[in-house]
Amino acid sequence: MSVMFNRLALVALACAVAAPAGAQLVQRKDLSYAVAKTAAENALDDCKTKGYAVSVVVVDLGRVRQITSRALGAIVDSTNRLAQRQGRVAVAGVSTRIQKVMDTLKLSTLIASFESAQAAIDAKGSRPAN
């Protein structure tokens, strides 16, 4: 599950960054980690070259039931890298189990969590009001 999550998270990152509004999202589950990471990095570089500012990257965890420390590390790393560019990473659809892990590791103070990807996009990754 963790390898699939890593692949999907990076594909989601690449697609969220590179796809214009209204574009159709193509999901692939057979990319290697290296290919997915390269695609995400290339998408970010392409946006930068074209003058687009990436304000938020949403990682939809709606179908994820378990998460590894490596996957959480990738989300944290992305959060730190995007923060250097005044951007944010948000997670959406987090299960109760994963939210407990994030709370225990104090990641909830670093990464905003939303009920849906659309809610995160609408809020531009800013923390939802309680």
Number of helices: 5
**Which range best describes the helical content: under 10%, 10-25%, 25-40%, 40-55%, 55-70% or over 70%?**
40-55%
Q: What is the name of the CATH superfamily? A: STAS domain
Question: How would you classify the helix and strand content by structural class?
Answer: mainly alpha
Average pLDDT number:
74
Within the CATH hierarchy, at the fold level, what is the topology? Transcription Regulator spoIIAA
Beta-strand percentage? 5-15%
User: Which spans of ≥5 residues are poorly predicted at pLDDT below 50?
Assistant: 1-11, 14-26
Order of helices and strands: HHEHEHEH
Biggest sheet: strands side by side, in what order? Answer: 1-2-3
Quaternary structure of the protein: single chain
CATH architecture: 2-Layer Sandwich
Task: Using the coordinates above, name the CATH class.
Answer: Alpha Beta
Explain what this protein looks like in three dimensions.
The protein has five helices and three strands. The protein is mostly helical and 130 residues long. The protein has a three-stranded parallel beta sheet. Helix 1 runs parallel beside helix 2. The protein is globular and about 40 Å long. Residues 1-11 and 14-26 have low confidence and may be disordered.
